[in-house]
């Protein structure tokens, strides 16, 4: 039996047993097979495109060794087509199937249903063969799709699993569209059992959500096992890493449960976050938050302000008071501790007042901590400042920095947090600590910001074409463009270049001073960085859900929320040259579609990769990076932006695919492109 045949057989067996099995049980299925086939098993299971592994025995986790208790879950890249049956798709690589047929609940017969029930139809068989799934039957394919295609089942509510009370920290409570169920139960590792404060059953609102999706009762009773498999697959590392293993939450003080972030939302702490419960960052009233892990969830530390104040002093390795926090090991007693924070003040968030100012210190021979770049009588001034080090640290936290103080040269290692004299080889300890800010300070800053009308580092300059009377000091305003205006014709012409059959009902200009200012600051920084007077700026399209329009207009694009359709060229926000491409992602749930038109600073770009979290370096250094990634360097049609400051959401187009009611023949398109483009 060939390796491919064994691999396909493994998938078939797994899907016949609910989508996953322990390795020892899986191996039993191959008893009687030739020895070569049995020896192939562990090697084939390393194929991360088809199998996800979770170590069943926490005490035995060698990286590339599969233990008898290792749980193997079936993986696939095949999905149900999102356009079928409402739209035509060409060269589609997804299955054209009735969703309710996959659930096992379609009330129509194969002949009566307008959607396909045949997994072996001409198109579907071709798709299945491409993924090596042509030998699966209907039930096996359904099991595989349910644990891999995220569009088929609702998410578990992360916010329900945080905080206390009946609904945790979920502000939507009974109207939440996600499942209020214990995340650890779904993972199969809840330690509290019947004493757990979270629900362990699909009942109440969760039952209604699932029934509302069309899932039959017998399928709902299987969901705990299905979600268990979903989380095995989610927790499995991406294919470009050396081995597939569960993410070690114990090794990081910044994350515990699915969707947790170690970043505090600046919009929420400043005034208001439009993403609400969808926000990927933490909503808290201070720019820092100390938490302790009780083995199940994270909760706030008592005397948080004192713990923070002590931490800001580089002399301290433990906090005062009881219980104390060990800052070196990030523990209190035997429990783990973590510190959440707003982003560093050097991350281009210039218009926010509550970013975190980090200060770098070194310890001299007398045990005194000295801030870099500050003059002291007993030591020479270093050639680098605290801000210089912070900037380099943010670029690469494993880097080394060489600097001069007096006649001596030193090397500072971020990894070891030490500086070494290159001549005498003496080492000094280095620490990075935040500047202290109390709750009272936060309230004063917020009041000051309100009274100043939100003024920032740059003067409030706005484009000439904006309506000055509809430009709020904070937030945004949508200004509908007049049909006869040059601006409307320009945007319409750009849109209809690839969408000639669409009917545009409205085009609105987004007027957001804060986002515009960030965009202008970024443009100036990119000009200085490149040494050019010109930065490549393009007008591009982005399709998304109508429910996200308010959040995007208010806070710009967040790829983790707005860019969930794919990461082929990197983990960032995707924009298209052609409106027709973005149209396929507009996710219209009714007759009306939404597209954003954005001004995007694409700058210098390179072909992207799914592994990129930011553009790669131009020269191998840690300071000179490309500005964006594309699908094709010679003729780019897709652009991936990793820094939201490079984006200004300029217009919202509302349209449908019905016949046009606007007499386009009477519109005279301008010959010149508007200056803002």
TrEMBL record:
Domain C3H1-type: residue ranges: 97-120, 181-203, 259-286
Record domain PARP catalytic: where: 462-677
MF terms (GO), sorted A to Z: NAD+ poly-ADP-ribosyltransferase activity; NAD+-protein mono-ADP-ribosyltransferase activity; zinc ion binding
A Pfam family recorded for this sequence: WWE_4
Keywords: Cytoplasm, Metal-binding, Nucleus, Phosphoprotein, Repeat, Zinc, Zinc-finger
ZnF endpoints (C3H1-type): 97-120, 181-203, 259-286
GO cellular component, one term: cytoplasm
Pathway: Protein modification; protein ubiquitination
InterPro entries noted in UniProt: ARTD-AVP, Poly(ADP-ribose)pol_cat_dom, WH-like_DNA-bd_sf, WH_PARP12, WWE-dom_subgr, WWE_dom, WWE_dom_sf, Zfn-CCCH_PARP12
Organism domain of life: Eukaryota
Compartment(s) of residence: Cytoplasm; Nucleus
Keyword Cell membrane attributed: no
Record domain WWE: where: 345-432
GO biological process: protein ubiquitination
SUPFAM superfamilies for this protein: ADP-ribosylation, WWE domain
Similarity comment: Belongs to the ARTD/PARP family.
Protein name: Protein mono-ADP-ribosyltransferase PARP12-like
Organism: Erpetoichthys calabaricus
Gene that encodes the chain: LOC114654650
């Amino acid at each position: 039996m060939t390796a491919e045949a064994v691999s396909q057989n493994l998938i078939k067996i797994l899907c016949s047993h609910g989508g996953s099995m322990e390795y020892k049980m899986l191996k039993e299925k191959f008893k009687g097979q030739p020895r070569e086939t049995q020896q192939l098993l562990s090697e084939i299971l390393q194929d991360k495109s088809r199998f996800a592994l979770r170590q069943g025995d926490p005490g035995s986790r060698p990286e590339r060794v599969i233990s008898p208790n290792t749980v193997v879950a079936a993986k696939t890249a095949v999905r149900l087509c999102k356009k079928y049956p409402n739209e035509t798709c060409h060269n589609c690589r997804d299955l054209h199937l009735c969703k309710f047929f996959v659930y096992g609940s379609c009330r129509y017969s194969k002949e009566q249903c307008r959607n396909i029930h045949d997994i072996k139809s001409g198109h579907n068989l071709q798709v299945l063969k491409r993924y090596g799934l042509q030998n699966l039957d209907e039930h096996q394919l359904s099991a595989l799709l349910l644990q891999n295609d995220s569009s088929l089942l609702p998410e578990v509510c992360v916010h329900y699993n945080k905080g206390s009370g009946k609904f945790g920290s979920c502000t939507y409570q009974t109207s939440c569209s996600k499942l209020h169920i214990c995340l650890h139960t779904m993972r199969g590792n809840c330690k509290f059992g019947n004493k757990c404060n979270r629900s362990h059953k699909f009942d109440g609102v969760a039952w209604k959500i699932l029934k509302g999706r069309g899932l039959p009762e017998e399928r709902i009773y299987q969901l705990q096992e299905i979600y268990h498999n979903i989380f095995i697959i989610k927790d499995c590392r991406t294919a470009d890493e050396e081995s597939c293993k569960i993410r070690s939450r114990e090794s990081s003080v910044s994350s515990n449960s699915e969707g947790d972030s170690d970043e505090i939302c600046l919009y929420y702490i400043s005034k208001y976050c439009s993403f609400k419960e969808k926000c990927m960052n933490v909503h808290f009233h201070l720019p820092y938050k100390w938490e302790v892990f009780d083995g199940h969830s994270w909760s706030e530390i008592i005397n948080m302000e004192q713990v923070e104040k002590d931490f800001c002093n580089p002399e301290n390795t433990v906090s005062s008071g009881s219980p104390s926090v060990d800052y070196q090991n990030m523990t209190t007693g035997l429990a783990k501790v973590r510190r959440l924070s707003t982003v560093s003040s050097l991350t281009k968030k210039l218009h926010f007042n509550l970013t975190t100012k980090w200060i770098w210190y070194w310890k001299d021979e007398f045990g005194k901590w000295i801030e870099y770049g500050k003059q002291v009588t007993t030591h020479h001034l270093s050639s680098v400042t605290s801000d210089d080090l912070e900037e380099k640290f943010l670029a690469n936290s494993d880097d080394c920095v060489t600097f001069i103080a007096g006649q001596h040269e030193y090397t500072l290692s971020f990894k070891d947090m030490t500086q070494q004299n290159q001549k005498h080889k003496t080492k000094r300890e280095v620490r990075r600590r935040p500047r202290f800010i109390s709750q009272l300070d936060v309230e004063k800053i917020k009041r000051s910001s309100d009274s100043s009308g939100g003024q920032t580092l740059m003067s409030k300059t706005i484009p000439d074409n904006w309506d000055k009377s509809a430009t709020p000091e904070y937030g945004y305003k949508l200004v509908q463009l007049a049909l006869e205006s040059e601006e409307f014709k320009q945007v319409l012409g750009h849109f209809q270049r690839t969408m000639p059959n669409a009917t545009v009902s409205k085009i609105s200009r987004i007027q957001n001073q804060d986002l515009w200012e960030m965009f202008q600051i970024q443009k100036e920084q990119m000009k200085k960085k490149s040494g050019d007077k010109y930065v490549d700026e393009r007008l591009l399209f982005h399709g998304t859900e109508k429910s996200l329009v308010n959040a995007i207009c208010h806070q710009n694009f967040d790829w983790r929320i707005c860019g969930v359709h794919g990461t082929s060229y990197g983990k960032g926000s995707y924009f298209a040259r052609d409106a027709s491409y973005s149209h396929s992602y507009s996710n219209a749930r009714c007759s009306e579609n939404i597209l954003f038109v954005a001004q995007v600073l694409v700058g210098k770009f390179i072909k992207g990769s799914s592994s990129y979290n930011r553009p790669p370096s131009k020269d191998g250094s840690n300071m000179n990076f490309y500005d964006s990634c594309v699908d094709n360097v010679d003729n780019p049609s897709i652009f991936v932006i990793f820094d939201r400051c490079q984006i200004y959401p300029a217009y919202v187009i509302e349209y449908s695919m019905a016949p046009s009611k606007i007499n386009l023949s009477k519109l005279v398109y301008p010959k010149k492109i508007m200056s803002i483009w």
